[in-house]
Amino acid sequence: MKTWIKDGRVLDPVKGSVEVCDLLVERGKISQICPHGAFEGDSCQWKVLDATGKLVIPGLVDMHVHLREPGQEHKETIASGALAAVAGGFTAVACMPNTVPPNDCRAVTEFILDQAGRAALVRVYPVAAITRGQKGESLTEFGDLREAGAVAISDDGFPVKDSGIMRRALEHASCHHLLVISHCEDMGLSRGGAMHEGIVSKQLGLPGIPASSEEIMVFREIALSKTTGCPVHIAHVSTAGSVMLLRRAKEEGIPVTAETAPHYFSLDHGAVMGYDTRAKVNPPLRTPEDVSAVKRGLAEGVIDVIATDHAPHSPLEKDVAFDKAAPGMIGLETALPLTLALVREGVLELADAIRKLSTNAAALLGVPGGRLVEGARADLALIDPDREFTLEERDILSKSKNSPFIGRPLKGGNALTMIGGKVVWERNG
Could you give the residue numbers annotated as active site? Predict the structure, then answer.
């Protein structure tokens, strides 16, 4: 079936332009992008999608999600995570390796891809472990993992403590064209902590995690990248000090990139008041000053990517005492409206926001996506930037519901997701 997406405001995040156009899709690809009113095809031969009032954007690409399968299917499955992703406007996700067992070998990588194929929704790109069992002791077989389908490596959830092993990981990964994604945490400083160390943790009587636990490891990764000349990507940046270190590294020409998650520019540690375990994440929510620094980092290009760090947990892990609760929140279905809030605040231009949600992540992972050009795969979303709604638990498609944004008013949302020319999700009403 040929599809005619008619009268949408087509956003080109590379050019930074928004123009009312008709977009034609044939054989899974964008065949033409025509100026408004220029296409005179017979509507009987086309499936027509009326995009009037909608933005047509490249499908979003999330380079940091947790799909939990294999081993933790009570929290999320690849199928349920894929459904949440397409509902949020994502056409591709990269899933972290801290499954059970970890994705540290060909068999697990291939299992993930097989399950993703069965779900037949979002494109799934596995991120494999840096070290065997994510224990930080010996490197995995990077070449074998790359051949199996991994696009990056990370021990996310666990820092690689040994600097020598991390140096070898950067060097070997470069040879195999794998991006190294670093979870920056000094466990000696964070161990036992439940939230950010500061005035709120003292008021609540909870053990804290200082900002320095992240910043020390960010500094190390920058130093190793400078020493080796090999790229490194810093995950879930949350502190002003990390933003400062990254800014200096980029000014010096060190090949370091970074991401943050929407909760780090939308919430601060005050969200934990009342011991709300839905607001417990790792790294923890920080101070208002850190939130402002993260926003500046996004605006200045110091932070390249917005990734969700989608981390589903069931009530078994969340409905417990705060210091015992698992850290993490879901984010695939709220990332778009939370990022559009930055546009309304004037922090980011619309095109820059979509670049950080799609184009930049695709480029870093070395996968297709993030562009709307003739000949490209028809992976796209139609979004309504003015849609106002309150997030309700019943509306969440993720298997887990651990979001502190439930009950909060949001603005801007996805209306339709197309992957390879096929509509895989459409909002009703």
Answer: 309
